[in-house]
Design a protein that fits this description.
Keywords: Transferase. By secondary structure, the protein is of the alpha/beta class. It has a six-stranded parallel sheet with strand order 5-2-1-6-7-8, sandwiched between helices. It has a three-stranded antiparallel sheet with strand order 9-10-11, covered by helices on one side. The chain has a two-stranded antiparallel ribbon with strand order 3-4. α1 crosses α7, α6 packs across α8 and α7 packs across α8. 36% of the residues are buried.
């Protein structure tokens, strides 16, 4: 990394290093809300030293979003694990100087402001490239850094609505529905993470940094892959189908005598096993259902033949029968049910951070042999690491107090 013209480089102390495949990578985190913090949470979980820069006295917007645990926002705690918090006023020139000193020894910068915001602050990619030519700079925004919508605000539901995602979600004939999780935000965070890791690999080969432009709207379109491809190449206009698959049948939820189940039959062999388990072997010879394509074309005739049979037994009875027949099936769990499922428990998908704190979150779903991840660190209090990070930059205690008095930190 190049040196900073404004002061000493940050020291690389053992206290700020994390174990994992990204150990030794430093990330400057200028993100807020969800599209961005989710990406930097994941980078931190993989071992990066993530320095979250927040507004003095205010911090990330999500710090004040309910519900709370011990006066801390659960929303904030969930996606800001594995980070250190530095408060810094980027509207002050001294704050910008400190920021550039951090950037000089960092590998990655992630921000999710509206397009043009960082340029107006004098902290855009072109401004920082001379400070650190090896910097990987990732910008996540609603609509990208160019185009007619680049300056518009965007939230998850806007991206889902504009992309067409809501038009294919929900029950047939019902109102358009938002996907239950914030897939607009999380999708862009994941694509940004892929871009960052790719740029780090490119930098290892060329020594050059990169600018990464990720738009929430673009990512939603990419996630709709099959719906987009069917429309463009076959003229098939996707629509809401409830739990049913547009190309496969039966592939949906069915009511039973008590609780519903989900069933997926993707091959003729699975079809044969399903009708055997249901006592409907005669359907194997019905010309409407001989192939997967025919079953899908005639799903409106097939479904009424299956529904009353499923209604004759309980959910658990059907799940036992279908598992014995090796037919893909599942209970339709609530969130509470899913979190105590034996497979979920076995995979360690619920983590307590910090240990014995009673605060539990979804764990990182990556298991990597040879590069195990370190235990996750809790989300930081606002400005919790300001003094330590400034000390790493070479500031004395008196200097730090002066910066605080001047409202720079």
């Amino acid at each position: 990394m190049p040196g900073s013209p404004e002061g000493p480089l940050m020291t690389n102390t053992e206290t700020q290093r994390r174990d994992g495949p990204l150990a030794g990578v430093r990330v400057v985190d200028l993100t807020h809300m969800l599209a961005g913090p989710y990406s930097t949470w994941l980078l931190g979980a993989l071992g990066a030293d993530v320095i979250k820069i927040e507004r003095p006295g205010k911090g990330d917007f999500t710090r004040v979003i309910a519900p709370f645990s011990d006066d801390e926002s659960i929303y904030f705690m969930s996606v800001n694990r594995n980070k250190r918090s530095l408060t810094l006023n980027l509207k002050e020139e001294k704050g910008k100087e400190i920021f550039r000193r951090i950037v000089a020894t960092s590998d990655v910068l992630v921000e999710n402001n509206r397009a043009g915001t960082m340029d107006r602050l004098g902290l855009g990619y072109d401004d920082l490239k001379p400070v650190n030519p090896k910097l990987v700079y990732a910008s996540i925004s609603g609509f990208g850094q160019d185009g007619p919508y680049r300056h518009r605000p965007c939230f998850d539901v806007v991206a889902q609505a504009m992309s067409g995602m809501m038009s294919i979600t929900g029950e047939p004939g019902g109102q358009p529905a938002r996907v239950g999780a914030s897939i607009g935000d999380i999708g862009s965070s994941l694509f940004a993470t892929i871009g960052i890791l790719s740029a780090l690999q490119k930098r290892a080969a060329t020594g050059e940094g990169s600018f990464i432009d990720v738009a929430m709207l673009d990512c939603q379109l990419a996630l709709m892959e099959n719906a987009i491809a069917r429309y463009l190449n076959a003229g098939d206009v996707p629509r809401a189908l409830g739990s049913r698959h547009p190309l496969i049948a039966p592939f949906q939820s069915f009511p039973t005598a008590d609780k519903p189940i989900a069933v997926c039959v993707d091959t003729n062999e699975q079809w044969e096993r399903l009708v055997g388990a249901m006592g409907l072997e005669h359907l194997l010879y019905d010309p409407r259902f001989l192939t997967g394509s025919l079953r899908n074309a005639h799903h409106a005739e097939l479904e009424p033949l299956l529904v009353p049979v499923f209604a004759g037994r309980s959910r658990d009875e059907w799940l036992e029968r279908l598992e014995a027949a090796d037919v893909p099936s599942s209970p339709i769990n609530s969130v509470a049910d899913a979190l105590v499922d034996p497979q979920v428990v076995h995979r360690g998908m619920v983590v307590e951070v910090p240990p014995n704190s009673g605060k539990r979150f979804a764990a990182v779903p990556i298991h990597m042999q040879g590069a195990p991840l370190a235990a996750e660190a809790p989300a930081p209090r606002l400005g919790e690491h300001t003094d330590a990070i400034l000390a790493e930059l070479g500031f004395a205690a008196a200097d730090i107090e002066a910066l605080r008095s001047a409202a720079v930190v």
